[in-house]
Amino acid sequence: MKTVTVYTDGACSGNPGPGGWAAILMYGPHKKELSGGEAETTNNRMELTAVLRALETLKEPCVVELWSDSRYVIDGLSKGWARSWRARGWVKSDKKPALNPDLWGPLLDQADRHDLRYHWVKGHAENEWNNRCDELAVAESQKYK
Hints:
The protein has 5 helices and 5 strands; from the N terminus they run E-E-E-H-E-H-H-H-E-H. Strands 3-2-1-4-5 form a 5-stranded mixed sheet, sandwiched between helices. Helix content is 40%, strand content 31%. The radius of gyration is 15 Å and the shape is globular. It has helices at residues 43-57, 71-78, 81-87, 101-113, 128-142, and strands spanning 3-12, 17-27, 30-41, 63-68, 115-120. The mean pLDDT is 96. It is an alpha/beta fold.
């Protein structure tokens, strides 16, 4: 399988409020930037959307080195939380409803399609690709102000 490196980020001005998401996919010398936004959303929804859109873009199953500054996304996937929520009918262990099942469901389907390797990166730090995703996501969110 091909190995693709993916950086993602989400941004929201107010929570909820106008938001944006961005992803950068890299394979060998190739690089593709994706971004989009919504008028009324949350930061977590934008973080999830960024990863989902990136994985949906891949035409075949890949090894994906996924980099995100979102603990919600990284832990939700790598620690199996989202799978447990889905198995319980989108209910968390504390019996409260899991948020964003409309995004988590398709994201878990994509995670099953690919071999994901999870990497948390500190946001707004020295990582050029995370910083580029942040720029793109913020720019998208500002389109809705």
